[in-house]
Specification:
Layout lengths: L1 H9 L9 H10 L7 E3 L10 H8 L4 E5 L4 H9 L4 E4 L5 H14 L4 E5 L3 H13 L3 E5 L2 H10 L3 E7 L7 H9 L8 E6 L5 H8 L4 E4 L4 H27 L1
Parallel strand pairs: 1-2, 2-3, 4-5, 4-6, 6-7, 7-8
Helix pairs in contact: 1-5, 7-8
Length: 244
Amino acid sequence: MISKRLKELFDIDVEICRSFEDLQVSYDKSSDPITLAISNINLPGAENGEALEYLVDLSIPTIVFTGTFHENMRDKLMAKDIVDYILKDNIFAVDLLAESICRFLTNHRHHVLIVDDSATARALLSSRLKRYNFRVSVSESGGKALEILKANRDIGLVITDYNMPDIDGFELTRRIRANIGSHELRIIGVSSSSNRLLSARFLKAGGNDFMLRPFIDEEFYCRVNQNLDTLLQIQSMRKERAVA
């Protein structure tokens, strides 16, 4: 059913592996890099998750499609740096899976800039976004971020920390908005502060969204997708008006 759906939507030819042995043989015989794997947690011959471990060890981007889920399971899945997980618990599960696949296959068209003076924070956000197949640039300061934006006009999303030594997130947002509008670039502010008013101040400075650390992976990815979807919708509407 999944194979048929992907063929209809994306004209993708899918290789089906019904067991762990099939998976190993398929990988050994493949002459091209595997773009994406969709896997259950357990397969015949790999009843304890060995198939998923195999895919992760090979650094193959993987979406888990499973009917087994609880909080501990979720934590274990996210710790493996999988792309996503989809639950087989409703009639729309295959459509949700298709949407997740579509996003992964098209995310490379989006260029995201991360601005944070913390090397650890930059690495964490960069790793998350690259896991989802986004193109990523990073900056350790607001000033450097402005230079990167000037040189890379294809950047569609900036994720910026609030508290930075040279230019804070508010001022960086104001300077960006002096030259680039929301129809060209979305901005998400982030902070570890407990001050709930930061979000209001950031939005009034020209930001489009705001998130408090620590993030939940699913929420972070959803907010990124929502902002990029909005950007594409705005750009599509502007093109339609220009043609009309």
